[in-house]
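are you around this afternoon, could really use another pair of eyes. what follows is a protein written twice so to speak, once as letters and once as structure tokens for the fold. i want to understand how the tokens follow from the sequence so walk me through it. anything you notice is useful, everything is just below.
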Amino acid sequence: QVQLVESGGGLVQPGGTLRLSCVVSRIIFSINSMGWYRQAPGKQRELVATKSSIGTLNYGDFVKGRFTISRDNAKNTVYLQMNDLKPEDTAVYYCRFSHRLGVYWGQGTQVTVSS
């Protein structure tokens, strides 16, 4: 069973920064993708950023250079550095891990941007 454990969410003021982390318990296939999605109240879950094991990057259109995804494969960990946070970034952020046999989600971590 693959488990994803997220950390790093919290309350931050507009313009502030946060760094999310997600540890994946088991990685069987070397070809895989790790990333982040988010869901705000009343909205659909949307892509924030993903990075594959071969380096392919995808970012949501709203990111506009403010967020950076990275991976530490030795630690089975994916990070999301979020800068210049805005109130509209408030959401539950979910870690996602996928390989050819399945897709796995973390439990989510709340990010609230408010003064």
